[in-house]
Amino acid sequence: WYQRRVRDMKNIESETPAVPSSKSGKKKASDYPIKSEIATVIVTVVSIFLTTFVFHCTWVTSEAYSSPSIVLAARGHDGNRIIFDDFREAYNWLKFNTPENAKVMSWWDYGYQLTAMANRTIIVDNNTWNNTHISRVGQAMASPEDHSYTIMKELDVDYVLVIFGGMSGYSSDDINKFLWMIRIGGSTPEGEHIKESDYYSSTGEYKVDKDASKAMHNSLMYKMCYYRFGEIMTEQGKPTGYDRVRNQEIGNKDFELDVVEEAFTSEHWIVRIYRLPETSQCECESSPCLCQCH
């Protein structure tokens, strides 16, 4: 009987479920709200970060990637957005106001745009691999007018297009690219008269003001960019002819063009187009000169 009683007591103990201690239960119950709050904070922070990232990506896309380079934007003094549509304006002018077989000379950067949007034949473009050909365009831009005229007639040019930012503050203009035209123009035997050092001031600086070199002042590029610019006031408190990109007052204001004539200048002066008038070379007693046919 005794043994059976002991065995029954052991069975009862094994079947009785364990009761958790009150201390561990209270600890788990008190930890739950804290963990829940931490999780809520983390989810909130991540959600804010992802939302901000979406808005940032949308802004970058609208401001940078979706805006074609031919349409420029800037902020005015009052914070309003200003649109510069000079490229399309100029290309449309070429398309509707020049003969279909007209040939346009510009630096190679704008070749594809001229072909696609103006539908005109260009002299060099982004795919021109012939260094001699590009060099001739550089020589035409860097030479005095009479020499430039000879080169342009050789290339059968009808119009010349330059990009100028001195009025609007557009820094990717041809004056800032001019040193490359000089270097490439002087890299071939035909351009041996072009020396980069001749286009620096006496102090060795690249300038467009009164201290600029004679070669700079007399180059076709300088004259096409700054023609009539000496009459314009670009900023209050600054003299006329103040270049907003170079922050200099141009040194050669009062000049006329001898071998090209202004055909079109866009609203903000970013694109300037010149026409080669019908001219012929006549012989003077000492040297050939250009005379306009009437």
Describe what this molecule looks like in 3D:
With 294 residues, this protein is of the alpha+beta class. 42% of the residues lie in helices and 14% in strands. It has a five-stranded mixed beta sheet, sandwiched between helices. Strands 1-2 form a two-stranded antiparallel sheet. The termini are far apart.
Strand order, largest beta sheet? 4-3-5-9-8
Q: Count the E strands.
A: 11
SSE class: alpha+beta
Radius of gyration: 37 Å
H/E topology pattern: HHEEHEHEHHEHHHEEEEEE
The backbone outline, from C-alpha atoms, is elongated
Note the total helix count.
9
* Poorly predicted runs of 5 or more residues: 280-287, 289-294
State the major sheet.
5 strands, mixed
Query: Helix share of residues?
Result: 40-55%
The proportion of strand residues reads: 5-15%
